[in-house]
């Protein structure tokens, strides 16, 4: 099968969309499918042997390092040359529309993966365009052959916009990487001096992630805050969280060791369509505290595989973490049950579902309509 992936973000950007596309490409290539990636902004022209077509972009207001794809004839030309059987639109909003138009012109079936709450994202940057963005997103997804959503909350959100052909498709985990065996006593000692518990966040340091909410935990006795990641809000967060350890961007084994060396993982933002870092922390054997909103509602069973806090009441975040600090048995039980729950969620399994169920459905539908 020949698959063209038109994505709103790809390497060297590090975020949920880029990481998901990377894993999808890896698994498709391993299964001997041919893949083309079309992405905005500057970057390498190949990824592990897969060609990457780079198109014109502009920096997003308030986040200039994040490129937004612009209308570019290179999209249509690259699809013409590649001759895909299917076009996969990864988190489409701007460049995805261009990819959709090109696919419709070529009469190629499309699968769109909804991954970013654009309206929520815009609100965090002071852009009051909720209704306009929602109309745009709804119209786009109503025009594709099939939309995949990562969570029940996302399904409800798009259904309210009139999108009908919705199917749940979750994310995989690199289970060979994220594992409790990665815990480093030396790293934990470096963070805490051996006298405190490491309570941490992993992810992009951007306003929509609301990492500043960790400030409510700073006064808890015996807590050392750890912030893993980088992004445009880093310096502001350093001022807001003066006692926190900031590790910067980590990848691979270093990232896995950071996850596993935490005593409690906290996700702070409430606009997540899925929240990959929650299940990576669960795979790493770390108890999770996350907002009772969006994707985490599907990933955390309260009191069994983690704790959920009310994002409208940051006192509840403090209470959840305080409860775990004094209950090592509860921390162990939550982490153990969560790790069991995510066992088997490999990227190979997830991408096999993508191909065998979702790609196949739209290809069969196109063949029947021909």
From TrEMBL:
<protein>
    <submittedName>
        <fullName>Glycosyltransferase family 1 protein</fullName>
    </submittedName>
</protein>
<dbReference type="Pfam" id="PF00534">
    <property type="entry name" value="Glycos_transf_1"/>
</dbReference>
<feature type="domain" description="Glycosyl transferase family 1">
    <location>
        <begin position="196"/>
        <end position="339"/>
    </location>
</feature>
<dbReference type="InterPro" id="IPR028098">
    <property type="entry name" value="Glyco_trans_4-like_N"/>
</dbReference>
<keyword id="KW-0328">Glycosyltransferase</keyword>
<keyword id="KW-0808">Transferase</keyword>
<dbReference type="InterPro" id="IPR050194">
    <property type="entry name" value="Glycosyltransferase_grp1"/>
</dbReference>
<feature type="domain" description="Glycosyltransferase subfamily 4-like N-terminal">
    <location>
        <begin position="14"/>
        <end position="176"/>
    </location>
</feature>
<dbReference type="InterPro" id="IPR001296">
    <property type="entry name" value="Glyco_trans_1"/>
</dbReference>
<dbReference type="Pfam" id="PF13439">
    <property type="entry name" value="Glyco_transf_4"/>
</dbReference>
